[in-house]
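Troubleshooting: if your tokenizer reports a length mismatch, compare your output against this known-good record of 281 residues.
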Amino acid sequence: MGSAESDEQETPPEIDTSRPHPARMYDYFIGGKNHFAADRQTAAKVLRHSPSIRVAARENRAFLGRAVRYLAAEAGIRQFLDIGTGLPTTNNVHEVAQEFAPSARVVYVDNDPLVLAHARALLTSSPEGRTAYIHADLRDPEAILSSPVVREVLDFSQPVALILVAILHFVPDEFGPAKILSTLTAALPPGSYLVASHLVTDHAPDSATGGQAAMREAGIPMQRRESREFAALAFSGLELVPPGVALVSEWRPEADGPRPTPAEVGCYGGVGRKPLCLMPA
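Known-good structure output:
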């Protein structure tokens, strides 16, 4: 894919290049090319407060890959609903899942029109599987769940993996994140999974607060939480897959080599399973 900056004159009019967007800033942090001047300017402000945010973004992306690999290769999951997917990059969810399960089905959801503009890069499924994309917002979970595309591609009588990676910190308390999560998880059949990650304040609170302020000044709602708050918000009522809620760099790492410090990562993640049956009261 070409640089969004070089393609700016060809950008569809519904894409507001004058305002930063989290998906494009994330793309910038992980070394992508699909971002505009407003995204880079806000990213530079965030980097001044949180210079290790690039490390956090890379470690978060790696966590997503390991979590999807676990679900496809070990847990037998064949359906994925990825909300807040961001711009296409390497090791997208369908690529990782279909490596182990070619029949896997994936629906991507994002509210940035630029993601839709690049959707064809996401829609390259294996012949046995399927991928699709819808333009929607996590803050309207009913619209996602009732989407004809979602209902056509995913079978909600069978387990589904819901992916909310690096998006919940963009849902401050005033937007009712607990209700959003309850609505989504209630729609999942037993045996489904939730993969979630969240920027936290545990290890470098001053840096986290400064980076959050820079995002809010740019008009991007954001609320970092403590890891225990994130765990309670995301995984209440779910059975956590070992090692539980941990630094994303420490969630089932593939190698024993040196890893970034907790302050550099500043992002926790986990995988939870919806119980097969409710225990009697």
